[in-house]
Amino acid sequence: MNAPGGERVALISGGSRGLGRLLVTRLLDDGWRVATFSRSANDWVKDLHAERPDRFRWEAADLTDQAALRAVVRGVIGWAGRVDLLINNAAVLHQELFLTTAPKKIEQLIAADLLAPITLAQSCARAMTRQGGGQILNVSSINAIRGFRGVAAYSAAKAGLDGFSRSLARELGAFNIRVNSLVPGFFDSDMTVEVTERNKERIQKRTPLGRLADVGEIADAVLYLTSPGASFITGQTLVVDGGITC
Length: 246
What we know:
One of its GO terms (molecular function) is oxidoreductase activity. Helices cover 43% and strands 15% of the residues. It is α/β, with parallel strands linked by helices.
């Protein structure tokens, strides 16, 4: 869906680094106005805001603070007048065997990886229904599809996010709002920085394409799902993992 005058506004969670940062850059280059949030601003965020204050918005917010997340959406609408695209990109990964994981840690992970996307989606969807449509893209994980040790709570959150996407697509289709999930495979990011070279080799051997993804390949898939070329796709989960889950 196109905004009046071609002005398109995107909100991306966790846009200060990694995949989120690349998505911010790609959407800005494509003519979008882009807003993002994270816990703190790095030099890249500060420089970009100084260069393009009319096109780029950043504010501090914690994924586990639902009131702050709702305030982020209100701020974006106050800044740009609308929100056409929400990309729920930010996530927290805690690796530990389930039996030894503290309940508080599980609560924090579920709050960041499931409740935060739900909160942002609800706030954005309400605005989208008033403006005539929009898109929501939830970045999930192969952990929602295939079991791995040490990530039980994270896997539960991501599987919940996929189910949420499908149900929400049913509810919002009548309002011209598309909702999809993207499941990225292993790619170089903050979440894989601690993966040893030996484990990376194991992952590559289990992946039919024989390598980790480049972050640009994941971004390409996100941008496809949010493009006019995917205008009849909703309620779907696109897996971009080099075949590791097949």
